[in-house]
Amino acid sequence: MQTRNQANQSKQANQSKQAKRRKSPTERTNFISLNEGFICANCGEKAPAANKTCRNHCPKCIHSLHVDDKIPGDRSSTCLGLMIPKFVDLNRKKGYIIVHECKKCGKISRNKVADDDDMEKIIEISQFPHPISPQCQETTTKRQIKK
Question: Is 10 inside any structural domain?
Fold first, then answer.
């Protein structure tokens, strides 16, 4: 059985490991919850705020905009390129995931399919995936190995 001193030392060691992973003590590493409506840069439709989750792509055409930089919701990207839905992946815990690639800089992002997404469009993307860049292919291959 651990003594109180041993438990405190263990807790301090864990906190130290977490602090080392961050680049600075004030750097945020977790998801920022922003659920905002927007006008789609691809199709021009109004995308309302989502139910139960955060809106990050158009429910009609499934395109997104590269607005987040390091973590979801930070809205600090200077790229602002159009994110093209490349293919749909299946995650055992989260369900269907849309893989987007930025048309301007090539950044890859993975976004959960929302309840109000056009399922015919999701099926179309899954049956006829867009050609993917070598960067997207490399990222996807690494993810599949980690599963």
Answer: no
Q: Which two tokens stand for residue 102?
A: 């930025």
Q: How many domains does the chain have?
A: 1
Tens digit of each residue's pLDDT (9 = 90 or more) over 61-108:
999 999 888 888 778 889 999 999 999 999 899 899 999 999 999 999
Whether 143 maps to a domain, the answer reads no
At residue 20, φ and ψ (nearest 5 deg) are -65, -30
Residue 21 lies in a domain: no
Helices (H), the chain: 4-21, 119-127, 134-146
* pLDDT score of 28: 52
Domain that holds residue 117: 31-131
Cβ distance 109 to 54 under 8 Å? no
Q: 3-class DSSP state for residue 146?
A: helix
112 secondary structure, DSSP code: E
Query: Quick check: is 15 in a domain?
Result: no
Does the model's pTM come out above 0.85? no
Query: Which residue is it, tokens 């993917």?
Result: 132
